[in-house]
Amino acid sequence: MIVGDQEGVTIRPARPGDEAAIHQLVVELATYENAADEVEATPTDLAAALFAEHAQCFCLVADSDRAQDGRLRGFALWYVTYSTWTGRHGIWLEDLYVREAHRGFGVGRALLAELAAECERRGYRRLEWWVLDWNSPALRFYESLGATPMSEWTVQRLDSSPLSRLAAEAAGSGQR
Questions:
Q1: Catalytic residue at 142?
Q2: Domain boundaries along the sequence of the chain
Q3: Which CATH class is domain 2-151?
């Protein structure tokens, strides 16, 4: 898919060799979200996840043949989910990021349109993601697409020590 911005951006699947550029975008996204110090993933980790024989996550990138700097303009990293209510798979968008200089030209919309098309091709029923409640530009953008906020739901997470403590309960019971 070609995006109508000033640089002729093309949306394509990530390929081996893109991992360092994707990693840089992840770091930029984390910086924007005031969480740069939380990024643990390396380009090697991304390559292992995205390009494994049986990859469990996938990535689209916004690339430009005319870019002077050779940098990707944005990315969308996603994986497959399943809904017991619909009885169908869906796509969970883990990260969507477009470099600031390239926002407002349709790059983010094109990345999401390609993910929506992937849902349609696969017969999936949902495309879902999180957005920080303070990110007004993103919230307005998603609303313009017709996205529905899930206001009755809250995000829950186990990590670090609480995750290890709970895992120990399974290990102690002899179940795996």
A1: yes
A2: 2-151
A3: alpha beta
